[in-house]
Model the fold of this input.
Amino acid sequence: MTYHPKSEFMAVMMQRGFLADCTDYQGLDEALSIGVTPAYIGFDATAKSLHVGSLIQIMMLRWLQKTGHKPITLMGGGTTKVGDPSFRADERPLLTDIQIDDNIAGIKRVFENYISYDDSPTGALMLNNAEWLDNLNYLEFLRDIGRHFSVNRMLSFESVKSRIDREQSLSFLEFNYMILQAYDFLELNRRYGCLFQMGGSDQWGNIVNGIDLTRRVLDHEIYGLTSQLLTTSDGKKMGKSLNGAIWLNADMLSPYEFWQFWRNTTDADTGRFLKLYTELPIEDCDRLGALAGADINSAKIILANEVTTLLHGAAAAAAAEATARAVFEKGGVGDELPTLTLTKADVGDGISIVQLLVKSGLASTGKEAKRLIAEDGAKLNDAALNNTGLVLQLSDFANPVKLSKGKKRHTLVQVT
Done:
């Protein structure tokens, strides 16, 4: 890309590797150069926490505020009732209003660690699209908004087309999602002067719809900007691990496990992730990412500390690093390890090591637990496990028991 941005925000997006596409680079850059510019990203409330796959968008909102603009975090209290069909193979399960409100309450806690919500010109806004979607009159909406949408064009969007090409059902409910998201952009522009929408590259079609609708209804010029849909160097989708989603809420994933996820970044991804997920100067990210051999591990620790500090605070990052050193370098236990707490009734007359591995989450099934033991992949108190029939008695839990899977996953088991 040969475009040289005037605005600090656009420069950051390009230099640090966020930017995938923009509807009008020059037009948006000019607007950003003039003064405080409001922009939004929408987050549907499908779970009680966002996972690390959403972190790239959260960092974009943080940089927007840091470079003198106004971020809007839009909670999808209304659109979650419909479900985004983009690049999904099946329909999302429908949630109740109570479930959606609970999920929004959980998600909100994360944003306060990254952006400031206050009354200043650049103070962030936390909004919920249920505010304008819940009370829409269906016939008026069809007449005033629906007439601006071409079904032929909607069918051409890759997110919809791929679903139809695979002959997978796309409900009328889901088909309406892109109209509702476009309407969000219109309402945010009308109510709050929101000038552009950001999102992952899979949201391009939805963003463009909102721009077209706002131009038709309000005759306002607005913009769209998308980030890369991040995959790791081995082609895996960012945000997932072998053991499930990497949640951002501490009550769904401990700060230690979050820290460990980043510490386990592959060598090839380290420099890129430092640019995207930390605020270290670009030259430092390049230098650290270029380290080779055992030296790259120091860069990964810096990455883990920086990312964990932003989300959970410096104390949690320091505790996680200390625990990792105790566990990996000294063979200790560490204070921050994930802990499984059992009752005396749970242990009863004895509990098998296979059950413990499953309950601790180190194995998903009894079959996997037995295979792990048979392949010398499990340890009990740092000693190799080789007996799949081992049963632990209540007396064995006088002190917490440390279970390990390989070199990097550990859980403490205690009985209360």
The CA atoms of residues 78 and 135 lie 10 Å apart. The domain at 339-415 is CATH 3.10.290.10 (Structural Genomics Hypothetical 15.5 Kd Protein In mrcA-pckA Intergenic Region; Chain A). The longest helix spans residues 296-312.
